[in-house]
Amino acid sequence: MRLMKTAIAAILGLSVVAGGLAQADAMSDAIKYRKSMMEVTGYNFKMMAAMVKKEMPFDKAQFEKMASTVHSMSMLTQDGFPKGSDGLAGDTKAKDEVWSKPEAFNKDVVAFQKASADLMAAAKTGDMTSIGPKFKEAADSCKKCHDGFRSKSE
Q: Using CB atoms within 10 A of its CB, is residue 73 exposed (0-12), middle (13-18) or buried (19+)?
C-alpha cells in the first residue's frame, strides 16, 4: 500500500512538473508568435514605405497585398501577449505595461487595427494621394504602441 501511495505521489509530482514545463513552452511559443508577427508587419511596412517614398515603383497589387497582411497581423496582435508571457525576461521587448495597463495597450492595438483597415481600403484605390496619409496614420499608430509598450533597451 505504501509503495502504491509513493508511486501515485511520484506520478502526480511528474504531472505538475510536466504541466509547468508545458506552460513555460506555451509562453515561450507566445513570444515567438508575437516576434514573428512583428517581423512580418515590419517587413511589409518597409516595402510599403519604399513605394510611398518612391524609392521603388508603386505596384498596386503588391501594395494592396502588403496592406492586407499588415491588417491581418494587427488583428492577431493581442493573441501574442497572453498573461504569463511577461515574466520571461530577456526573451521579449514587451514592457510590463502591456499586462499592468491592459486597457491602454488594447486601446493602442485597436487604433492600429483601425488605421491598418483604413490603409487597406486606401490601397484598393491605387491612389497615392489617399494612400500616403493612411500609410502615415498606420505607421504612426504602430509607433505609438511601440513607444508605450516596447522596451528600447535591446
A: buried
Of 52, 94, 47, the C-alpha closest to 70 is 47
**C-alpha cell, 43:** 517587413
- Bridge partner list, 75: none
**pTM for the complete prediction?**
0.80
Strand partners, 94: 150
Q: Give the chain's domain count.
A: 1
140-150 per-position pLDDT tens digit? 999 999 999 98
CATH code for the domain of 112: 1.20.120.10
- Contacts by 21-26, CB closer than 8 A, 24 or more apart: 23/84, 26/82, 26/84
In a domain, 56, yes or no: yes
Domain that holds residue 119: 2-149
Question: What is the maximum span of the chain, computed from C-alpha positions, in angstroms?
Answer: 81
**Does an H or E element contain 39, and which?**
helix 2-52
- Has residue 154 been placed in a domain? no
Per-residue pLDDT of 13-63, as tens digits, reads: 544 444 444 455 777 888 888 899 999 999 999 999 999 999 999 999 999
